[in-house]
Amino acid sequence: MVFWVFGYGSLVWNPGFEYDDKMIGYIKNYRRVFDLACIDHRGTPEHPARTCTLEYKEGATCWGAVFCVRGDEEKERLAMAYLENRECEYDQKTTVDFFKDGAIDEPTLSGVIVFTSTPDKESNKYYLGPAPLEDMANQIATAFGPCGNNRDYVFSLEKAMFDIGHEDDMVIELANEVRKVLGITGLGIPKENSSSNRLTGPPLKPKSPMSPHKLLRLPEAISMDT
């Protein structure tokens, strides 16, 4: 028994389940968007967080990580049960082709599972739809839930994509807009009284120097949830 699942959000840095293999790569004709509500991890029903889902777009690519679970039926069942519980806001499982870095024409894997959501507010109660960048940043900057702040999700995803060598311009733009809402510098220090009002927790330290014209140093990251 074997299955592969593609992660494009928190699975990239925090899979949370036992897996046997992992590869970095991409899927075609999908892009990452922050159009899905999270009400049980980084948000609440009253103040939902925004987390990413996939939007179909011809010619787009979405980078992430694919994980393999192989073994007996019980091992596969446990992994899938964990994923279905964790990704409960996603109402679809889509199968896609996966391409490793460098692969263009022939997929490395076919039939890879990816959790997606129906982009319709009537049939999918978790679908928020698109919003102006400033509105999304304000929502993300203030939402929090049992597993932490919504902003940490965005900052962790920003760093995770940097770490695998495939930064997402949209994630960087959104993360920097959230920083503006929070009134913090690239080091995670409030603009006023910066010597005494640091955000809780140490700033993340990247594996290598970040590009100064695109990616600001992160204020904090807490990987606790989905």
Automatic annotation (TrEMBL):
Gene3D superfamilies: Gamma-glutamyl cyclotransferase-like (3.10.490.10)
InterPro entries noted in UniProt: ChaC, GGCT-like, GGCT-like_sf
One GO MF term attached to the UniProt entry: glutathione specific gamma-glutamylcyclotransferase activity
Superkingdom of origin: Eukaryota
Named cofactor requirement(s): Mn(2+)
Region (Disordered): 191-213
SUPFAM superfamilies per the UniProt record, alphabetical: Gamma-glutamyl cyclotransferase-like
GO cellular component: cytoplasm
Pfam families found in the cross-reference section: ChaC (PF04752)
GO BP terms: glutathione catabolic process
Subcellular location: Cytoplasm
E.C. number: 4.3.2.7
Keywords (A to Z) from UniProt: Cytoplasm, Lyase
Membership in a protein family: Belongs to the gamma-glutamylcyclotransferase family.
Protein name according to UniProt: glutathione-specific gamma-glutamylcyclotransferase
